[in-house]
Structures are given as structure tokens and as C-alpha cells.
Amino acid sequence: MSEKRVGVTNKQTRGRGDAGTRRIEISTKISFTLDQPNNHLPDQPTNRENSSVLRFWVALVLVALLVTAITIWLITQRMIAHLTAQESLLNQTSSSDSQAELIQPEDDESQAFQVIQQANSRIDEVFANHPLPLPDYFPVTRRQMKQSWRYLRRFVREGPAVELDLEATINQISRQGVLVDPILRPRRFNQSELLILIDWYGSMVPFHALSQRLAQTAIKGGRISQSKIYYFHNYPIADLYTTPTYQEAVSIPDMLAQLSTNRAGILIFSDAGAARRGFSLERIELTATFLMQLKQRIRYIAWLNPVPKAAWTGTTAEAIAKFVPMFEFSRRGLDNALGVLRGQIR
């Protein structure tokens, strides 16, 4: 019995020992397992970050491709529009050229006259309303005109005696032997009157700027007591005009009544038909009648012609020059014309 108990006890002891050993192994495994670091836990967030970065770059590439495609499309559309516009312009030009070739000129003479008339009216309007400072390429410069106008003087002593008459005073002293009272005399004033008659429109259109300069220098720089400008076309018949547009008319008798017979001078500025190389008996007769009307009132009359004298031959100007002193417009011609107005040249 005792041996059996001992055997049982030994078995139990072994069993307990085995169980303890197993517990130790299990606990050792568990403790080892718990103590061992987990290498799989950090892998999960690393994979997520990599996938996020990959998606970002894919999206960025897609956006770049989209922007590039839109840019290429816009450039293509603009080039197409530009080419279309050029093509339409070329078509319009070719169509207009073809139409112009098909149109035949009708009544060329009347059309040319209308074009010239419109151009002349436009030029007249520009020079009448806005005179331009043109360069001195004219035969007579602005300065030369002013210098010539200053020789047109007729001094008259008028008013109270306030100026010393030196010669008379010396003669008095020589006669009496003593100075009693100085002899005084009135002052001298330039009493010359000037009337400029300008042929306007028609063949005188190329000389409008020259005629305007002639009139302006006479009024502003001539130091003339009284100067007036009148306009006419080809030849005056009954009236003269105070403006180039022919809006205000003055009859010839009324105009002459305002002038002094001994002090006034009339200067006519006209081509007298020489610019167009024409010869008109009607113009000669009417101009001669007008000149006779002037001479009944005014003694000094001269004519300035902007066309050179060599071109007068065979024209109306050559015939009119027999009725009045006529000079070509140059520095010498202007001085000679003013000499006639001063009474020094006939």
C-alpha cells in the first residue's frame, strides 16, 4: 500500500512538475510574446502616406494636362479667326477692285469740275477761317512786304503847333538878330489811304495764301492810317465784298465816296486771266469800264499780277496792262507798284 501511495505520489509530483513546467513555458512564451516589439504596426500609416502622395501627383499631372489642352485650343481658335479675317479682307479688296474695273466713267468733264469745285471751296474755307503760318517760299517774304509798305506815306501836318520849326526859327534869328520866340508847327501824320482789291476764287485759288499775306502785312505792319480790303471775282461789275465768302457787299460808288482823292491809292491783286492763258474780250471791256470808274475819283492806281510777266503774252492780262500800270509780284514789282501809289512812278 505504501508503495502504491509512493508511486501515486511520484506520479502526482511528476504531473505537478510537468504542469508547472508547462505553465512556465506558457508564461515564458506569453512574456516573450508581450516583450517582443511589434514590427507590423508602423507599416500601416506609411502605406497610407505613400498612397496620398501618389494621388496628389496624379491629380497635379491631370490638371497640367487639362490647362495645356485648353491653352492649345484657345491659340488654335485665335489663329483660325485671324486667318478668316484676312481671307474676308482679301475677298472684299478683290471684289471692290473688280467692281471698280467694271465701272465706266461717265461725263468725266462734269465730275472733274465738281471735284475741283469742292477742293477749291475747302481750300478757301481753310484759309479764310484758319490762316496758316506758311514758310517764306513766296517771291516776296513777309518782312520784305512790311518794309515796302512803310514807304507808302503821305505826311500831312495837322493839329496844334507843338513841334519846333528849326529852319524857320534860324531864319528869324538871322533877320532880327535876336531870338524872340521859337517858331512852332503842327506834327506830321501819315495820312495815306490804301484800298486793296483782291481777286478771289477761280484761277486765283493757288494765290490765296499770297494775297492774304499781302493784305495782312499792309494792315498790321504797314503803318498806314487807313487801309481796307475788298474782294471780287474776275472783274467787279457793281459791287465789292468785304469778306472772301461774298456775304457783305458794298457798291462801288459808296466805296469810292469813303476815300480821299489826293491821299488814297488803290492796289489791285489779280492774274487778269493770265493764269489760265485765256483771252476774253468781255473781261477786257468790263475791266476797262471799272478802271475808268476808279480813275474818276482816285488818282493813284496800280495792279499786281502773281503770274510772271513772261506769261502775259497773248492773254487778257496783256490787254489790261495797257489801261493801268501792271507789275509782276516780286520785290521789285511791289516797290514799283507802291511807287505808283506814292505818285513817283507813272
* Highest CATH level, the class of the domain at 142-154 and 191-342: Alpha Beta
Strand order of the largest sheet: 4-3-7-8-9
The CATH architecture assignment of the domain at 142-154 and 191-342 turns out to be 3-Layer(aba) Sandwich
Query: Which spans of ≥5 residues are poorly predicted at pLDDT below 50?
Result: 1-17, 26-45, 100-106
| Strand proportion | 15-25%
Count of individual helical segments = 10
Structural class estimated from helices and strands: alpha/beta
**Mean pLDDT, as a whole number?**
77
The count of strands amounts to: 9
> What overall geometry do the principal axes of the alpha carbons give?
elongated
Measure the end-to-end span: 194 Å
Name the helicity range: 40-55%
In N-to-C order, the SSE pattern is HHHHEHEEHEEEHEHEHEH
Radius of gyration, in angstroms, nearest whole number:
57 Å
- Largest sheet composition: 5 strands, parallel
CATH topology of the domain at 142-154 and 191-342: Rossmann fold
Descriptors:
346 residues, alpha/beta, Rossmann fold, 5-stranded parallel beta sheet, two-stranded antiparallel ribbon, 10 helices, 9 strands, elongated, disordered N terminus
Molecular structure report:
With 346 residues, the chain is an alpha/beta fold. It has helices spanning 2-35, 43-102, 108-129, 142-149, 166-176, 208-220, 252-257, 281-295, 316-320, 331-342, and strands at residues 155-164, 184-190, 193-199, 226-232, 239-241, 249-251, 264-269, 300-305, 326-328. Strands 4-3-7-8-9 form a five-stranded parallel β-sheet, covered by helices on one side. The chain has a two-stranded antiparallel sheet with strand order 1-2. A two-stranded antiparallel ribbon has the order 5-6. A hairpin with a 7-residue loop joins β5 (239-241) and β6. It is elongated, with a radius of gyration of 57 Å. It starts with a helix and ends with a helix.
